[in-house]
Design brief:
- By secondary structure, the chain is of the alpha/beta class.
- Helices cover 31% and strands 13% of the residues.
- A ten-stranded mixed β-sheet has the order 3-1-4-5-8-9-13-12-11-10, with helices on both faces.
- The longest helix has 18 residues.
- It is globular, with a radius of gyration of 25 Å.
- It starts with 21 loop residues before the first helix and ends in a 60-residue tail after the last helix.
């Protein structure tokens, strides 16, 4: 693997905020911007917001960066607000995919947007990357357009789109942009800016990791491995210049099995230590997908988070509340990446499987910054985490094994024997965070990977004693082996082991705590009987879920490939292979969701009908073992004391579950109601 030049962070004068108007540019003495960033989010100058990271990073390299936030997209004029950028426009939909942000999993319109002042909905267009890129081109025809962020990253190849129920081309094609940047893009965006400043056109930058561009043909000096013939043995081709050909856009559009194959190959080529470039034909053009970006080192990640952020929303918003900012302003991201590989989640496809950890010193410094600079801080750090709460400093112990590994998950079906799971450094970090002057409490409310936590009883004790308040949210996602296998999640036994450890630790600490589990309805591989068994488990354990999540097929996830193709890309794809059942019709999806909320009288009619068709009319009635009543009286609840609680004697039912917040924890395929 080629070794990238380490990122450097020269100390330069920094703007109080990156300018959003000509007046702000005038104050800074700028006649133009080198780069103009266009985003679907409100501008919050904080490292939890992607445009702030990109803007401050480019600023540190000596570039003048302006931001156009949530522009009116009805015409090109708002995209001329900062004038013609000298180098390029950088376009993103924002921290969330614009379609996930706008629609529920049942494709109902959301009324709010957590990344907009006042939580107002409708301030960004559907498919924002495409719309913004086109308006940038209309504003200044000769200025290159570079697209990135989660929406572009997860649409970098031909993909299934649930909202139109069809295969769509790479977003690079539809946006007519010059270059697409995917994943964590710090190195790539600095390289692009430097080379653009030297006169090179972004559309000709063929050798930057983490980018996608369009070529006329595959260069003659590259060997091509064709992965489109799924029943033929793949030849072993060695060498530095080897590219893997995915089935073309036209092939995956017309053949669902080939779509599953393309998904499998993409995920197998995701380890930056051994991944090869990919190429996918779109009409008469070749879509060239470079290798994933090399993970940032700890000093590099520290440098990104130590940039001179204002740590708040742009002053132009006045006193308006931005819900996403309110949720994370006292929290700290300590890690990037996730090696869990859950099939429904796109974190791995965006941030990678190799964990990138900040240093303890950098994290403690940010706590001090929050204490000293963030308005309203009362002594509580609301979260120390990232995609997961307890993967900080975890990873493969064998570098030579990691270089050749193509596993889709380090923890499924079992924890890899070369994976380091030592939680002691994280325990020390927690203690250091609690010891910062002015900090009264450090909360860990969600994101704990419990199959890892059970390997460290000391971590569970530390977590429960010092960092869990009333409840801890975890995500078993299901109870049945069939759906869990398609999710690439551990069996329910792992949850039970963690629950036992959690309850013992809570009792030892003298605390009344609840475990709040999340579950997914209608995931590929889930039958009506699976959902019935889950409902019975919920009742037996005293859970009455309030808001629940239904599977949403977001672009590029393995579960989406199952949903669309009926095949399982976790395993080698064959035309005569296993067919995966998925609940697709609105009525059946509602039934699966109703099983999660078995206690809701509004769901009893559809559940009664389903139970009768399933031959389980014995579950209709007033008995404790029954699920729904014959009439309007609810069946008796489980009398098992403390069934859903961390300590015996607490109330039987935990607090009602709420929707998973749209923060850093959940990937685009999670948390949708």
């Amino acid at each position: 693997m080629d070794q990238p030049t380490p990122l450097s962070f020269p100390r330069r004068p920094a703007a109080p905020f990156l300018p959003m108007s000509r007046a702000e540019m005038d104050v800074l003495g700028w006649d133009c911007c080198d780069v103009v960033l266009v985003t679907g989010d409100a501008y919050v100058d904080h490292p939890s917001f992607g445009m702030a990271i990109v803007g401050r990073l480019l600023e540190s390299q000596g570039f003048r960066v302006g931001i156009i936030s949530q522009p009116d997209w009805s015409g090109p004029e708002p995209f001329r607000a900062l004038g013609r950028p000298r180098l390029f426009f950088g376009v993103t939909a924002g921290n969330m995919d614009s379609m996930v942000n706008r629609y529920t999993s049942d494709r109902r319109l959301r009324s709010d947007d957590n990344y907009t002042p006042g939580g107002e909905g409708g301030r960004r267009p559907d498919r924002a990357v495409i719309v913004y890129a086109q308006r940038c081109r209309e504003a200044f025809k000769d200025v290159p357009v570079v697209i990135g962020g989660i929406e572009a990253s997860l649409r970098r190849i031909a993909h299934f789109d649930i909202w139109s129920e069809k295969l769509r081309r790479s977003v690079l094609m539809d946006a007519k942009a010059d270059l697409l940047v995917f994943g964590n893009a710090e190195r790539a965006i600095v390289d692009i800016a430097r080379r653009a400043a030297a006169g090179e056109a972004p559309k000709s930058m063929h050798d930057i990791r983490g980018t996608v561009l369009v070529r006329d043909t595959v260069p003659a000096d590259w060997q091509v491995v064709d992965a489109s013939d799924i029943d033929a043995a793949q030849p072993v081709v060695k060498g530095e210049r080897v590219v893997v050909r995915l089935p073309s856009f036209e092939q995956v559009r017309d053949d669902q099995v080939l779509y599953a194959q393309a998904s499998r190959v993409l995920h197998q080529e995701s380890n930056p230590l051994n991944a090869r470039p990919l190429v996918q034909r779109h009409g008469d053009k070749e879509l060239w997908v470079s290798q994933p970006p090399v993970p940032l080192s700890t000093p590099e990640l520290d440098g990104v988070y130590d940039l001179p952020y204002a740590r708040g929303p742009h002053p132009s918003y006045g006193d308006a509340k931005i819900p996403a900012w309110e949720m994370i302003r006292f929290s700290i991201n300590i890690v990037r990446g996730c090696f869990g590989g859950c099939s429904f989640c796109s974190i791995t496809e965006h941030e990678g499987r190799i964990i990138q950890s900040r240093s303890e010193a950098s994290i403690i410094h940010e706590i001090e910054e929050i204490r000293d600079k963030t308005k309203g801080f009362t002594g509580t750090i609301s979260d120390l985490g990232g995609p997961t709460a307890n993967m900080w400093r975890l990873g493969c112990r064998e570098p030579e094994v990691q270089k050749v590994c193509r596993r889709l998950s380090c923890v499924y079906p079992d924890i890899c024997k070369t994976l380091g799971t030592d939680h002691d450094p994280l325990i020390r970090l927690y203690r250091a965070a609690r010891g910062v002057k002015g900090v009264k409490r450090v909360s860990i409310g969600s994101g704990v990977r419990y199959d890892l936590a059970v390997t460290s009883p000391a971590y569970v004790d530390e977590l429960v004693r010092h960092h869990v308040g009333g409840y801890l949210k975890i995500a078993p996602e299901h109870t049945e082996d069939g759906p869990l296998a398609k999710m690439m999640k551990p069996g329910i036994g792992s949850y039970e082991r963690f629950k036992e450890m959690f309850e013992k630790a809570a009792a030892k600490a003298g605390k009344k705590l609840y475990l709040i589990p999340y579950f997914i309805a209608a995931h590929p591989g889930t039958t009506d009987r699976d959902m019935l068994n889950l409902a019975l488990w919920l009742k037996k354990n005293g859970f009455r879920l309030d808001q629940v999540q239904t599977f949403l097929p977001t672009p590029m996830s393995l579960a989406t490939a199952m949903y669309h193709s009926g095949r399982d890309p976790i395993r080698p794809v064959r035309r005569a292979g296993e067919e995966v059942f998925t609940a697709k019709g609105l009525r059946q999806r509602r039934l699966h969701k109703a099983f999660l909320r078995w206690h809701d009288p509004e769901n009893w009619p559809i559940l009664r009908e389903a139970l009768q068709k399933m031959g389980r009319a014995d579950l209709i009635g007033p008995g404790q073992h029954q699920l729904v009543p014959r009439g309007g009286v609810a069946p008796a609840s489980s009398s098992k004391p403390g069934a859903a609680c961390a300590k015996s004697g607490a109330r039987r039912d935990p607090p009602p579950l709420r929707r998973r917040p749209s923060g850093r924890r959940a990937g685009p395929g999670e948390g949708q109601t």
